[in-house]
């Protein structure tokens, strides 16, 4: 009992201190902070007081401690501290967009300044084939995205901020495997993120297959499988996919939901 009495003032003091910062800190000081995780911890679409109370419950912990939870480690440095709180403050009161609970078709155009460069991590990837306007076959697997080495962060006119790999079975939806999609080699990765601007429009592609992504410009038989990002949300991204070889084309939509 005495143990809990000693801890309570410390926890109460932490809440009070962070609350004062939340209320009175100059918001412009935090405008440069960014995060690959969403501070909308309760997923109600708005960063508010309930999220603040959840954050406080893990404040001061490190990844080797029991109360540590990675969702509150907004800067991803293995410790939940003041830098994470500053990111939280920067987002307080803002609406947060989440992907629908089930994978759905999405359309539209990306904002000119959006990027996947801060989205390294693991995702649950779902690809749905569409035939004559109707959902057909579905494939699911894990997608891992890693930060690209600085010497490999561009290819032609496109930025390549991330590379990665996936264990998804492309053949299950009639898509082509242009080399191993599970390759972890940065010089020939199974997945390569390409970002470019064309006629004022932002385009983000995930090209699948190690042979298609070889840095030595090796030729292949013309087959391709490409995911095109149409929407980026706090917990992942979604869009359309297309795969083909000569006159044979399959297509559909996809969702990549962040796991950790």
- Beta-strand portion reads 25-35%
Radius of gyration: 21 Å
Secondary-structure-based class equals alpha+beta
Tally of domains: 2
Distance between the termini: 37 Å
Proportion of residues in helical segments: 10-25%
User: Which ranges are low-confidence, i.e. pLDDT below 50, for 5 or more consecutive residues?
Assistant: 1-8, 26-35
Strand order across the largest sheet: 1-2-5-6-7-8-9-10
- The helix/strand order is HHHEEEEEEEEEE
Give the gist of this structure.
With 260 residues, the protein is of the alpha+beta class.
Give a written overview of the molecule.
The chain has 260 residues and is of the alpha+beta class. The protein has two domains: 2-91, no CATH class; 121-258, no CATH class. 17% of the residues lie in helices and 31% in strands. The protein contains three helices and ten strands, in the order αααββββββββββ. It has helices at 2-24, 49-58, 82-91, and strands at 121-131, 134-147, 154-155, 158-159, 162-166, 191-198, 201-208, 224-233, 236-245, 248-258. The strands form two sheets. Strands 1-2-5-6-7-8-9-10 form an eight-stranded antiparallel beta barrel. It has a two-stranded antiparallel ribbon with strand order 3-4. The longest helix has 23 residues, at 2-24. The protein is globular. The two termini are 37 Å apart.
């Amino acid at each position: 009992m005495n143990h809990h009495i000693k801890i309570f003032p410390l926890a109460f003091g932490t809440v009070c201190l962070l609350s004062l910062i939340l209320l009175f800190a100059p918001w412009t000081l935090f405008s440069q902070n960014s995060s690959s995780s969403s501070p909308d911890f309760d997923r109600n679409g708005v960063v508010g007081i309930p999220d603040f109370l959840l954050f406080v419950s893990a404040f001061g912990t490190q990844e080797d401690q029991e109360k540590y939870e990675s969702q509150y480690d907004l800067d991803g440095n293995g410790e939940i501290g003041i830098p994470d709180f500053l990111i939280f403050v920067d987002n307080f009161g803002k609406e947060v967009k989440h992907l629908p609970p089930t994978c759905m078709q999405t359309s539209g155009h990306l904002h000119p300044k959006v990027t996947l460069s801060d989205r390294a991590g693991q995702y649950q990837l779902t690809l749905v084939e569409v035939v004559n306007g109707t959902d057909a076959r579905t494939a699911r697997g894990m997608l891992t995205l890693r930060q690209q080495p600085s010497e490999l962060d561009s290819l032609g006119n496109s930025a390549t901020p991330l590379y990665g790999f996936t264990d998804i079975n492309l053949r299950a939806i009639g898509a082509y495997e242009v080399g191993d999609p599970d390759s972890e080699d940065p010089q020939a990765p199974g997945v390569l993120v390409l970002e470019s601007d064309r006629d004022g429009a932002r385009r983000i592609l995930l090209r699948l297959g190690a042979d298609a992504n070889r840095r030595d410009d090796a030729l292949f038989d013309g087959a391709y499988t490409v995911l095109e990002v149409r929407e980026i949300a706090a917990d992942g991204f979604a869009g359309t996919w297309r795969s083909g070889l000569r006159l044979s084309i399959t297509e559909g939509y996809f969702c990549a939901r962040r796991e950790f």
